[in-house]
Amino acid sequence: MALDHAILVSLLEQPGSGYELARRFERSIGYFWTATHQQIYRVLKRMESDGWIDVREVPQQGRPDKREYSVAAPGRAALSAWLHEPIEPESVRHDLAVKIRGAAFDDPAALIREVERYREVHAERLAHYLAGEVRDFTGPEAPRAPGPPDAGRELQHVVLRGGIAYERMTLTWLDDVLATLHGLAPER
Q: What is the dihedral of CA 109, 113, 118, 123, to 10 degrees?
């Protein structure tokens, strides 16, 4: 997937400035597709010159005007074409898994601290996802729209649930790795 497609999806969900788009990447999309502010602005500029997005100047009080981006017809067509293309499942490249296998040729116990750090990062990410789910989808403050289900909202939620399931699976695996490493550590 190209960053272009992630940006198009985000702008179809809600038009916004480059800054707002970068914040959305930090808040939600970035957990599945990361991009720096510079990358986002570079792609926006290219997409604008290719006619994929429209830009309008929005006057602001006491600040410079902002540029608000929205998806133009050619951008919708590009996204539609991409959505209909088959994709191959991603190949997993996992540095930690290689380190764990390589620990057989060194001191497996030396890897415990790194696995614990890695586990902490995933536990924090899971907590963030769960808080976002309550805030945006299941809690008392979650926005509710009357009528039939909103496809965009339902699909955002299913992606979030996938992230939650992935983090839970990763934590279960890391607990298994830690138990194995502790079992291999020489008694002191």
A: 110
Which DSSP state fits 54?
A: E
Query: In one letter, which amino acid is 123?
Result: A
Helix (H) or strand (E) holding 67: strand 66-71
Rounded distance, CA 163 to CA 130, Å? Answer: 10
The mean pLDDT of 158-183, rounded to a whole number, is 94
Dig out the tokens for 110 from the structure.
């030396």
What is the distance between the alpha carbons of residues 138 and 159, in angstroms, rounded to a whole number?
Answer: 15
- Rounded to whole angstroms, how far apart are CA atoms 143 and 83? 28
| Bridge partners, 57 (sequence order) | 67
**pTM for the structure as a whole:** 0.79
Q: Which position has the higher pLDDT, 167 or 94?
A: 167
N- to C-terminal Cα separation, the chain? 49
- Given this model, what pLDDT does residue 126 score? 95
